[in-house]
Amino acid sequence: QVQLVESGGGLVQAGGSLRLSCAASGGTFFSYAMGWFRQVPGKEREFVATIAWSGGTTKYADSVKGRFTISRDNAKDTVYLQMNSLKPDDTAVYYCARDSARFRGSTSTLKADYDYWGQGTQVTVSS
Predict the structure, then answer these.
(1) What's the pLDDT score for residue 13?
(2) Three-class SS of residue 112?
(3) Cα dist. 108→7, 9, 21, 42, 60 in Å?
């Protein structure tokens, strides 16, 4: 059974930084793309960033491009999201997710293409 556990969320002032981690277990982590999504109450869960299984391709939502960096360590079965220059609009519950297809040739920004999700970690950015 695949499990994803996020950590690293918290309260930070605008302009600050946080690093989220997502530890995976129960599957062949290295062969799947991984993604980060976020959700605020009353809104749809939205795409934040994704990284290919090889780590060679990344994609970002326009709202975080240039401020967030996704990376992965396949030896540790962990994906990271480094968040810099945080804004109050970044406040949300952040979820990591695993792509449903092994060795996908591209990366997906669609929630429907991810089949396993973590429980989420709260990020709150104060102004």
Answers:
(1) 98
(2) helix
(3) 23, 24, 20, 24, 10
d(CA 54, CA 31): 8
Can you tell me whether residue 98 is helix, strand or coil? Answer: strand
Max CA pair span of the chain: 41
Q: What is the pLDDT of residues 57-96, one digit of tens each?
A: 999 999 999 999 999 999 999 999 999 999 999 999 999 9
Residues in the chain: 127
Beta bridge partners of 50: 35, 59
SS (H, E, C) 26-90: CCCHHHEEEEEEEECCCCCCEEEEEECCCCCCEEECCCCCCCEEEEEECCCCEEEEEECCCCHHH
Q: What is the pLDDT of residue 92?
A: 98
Contact 37, 49 (CB under 8 A): no
Structure tokens at 113: 């293409």
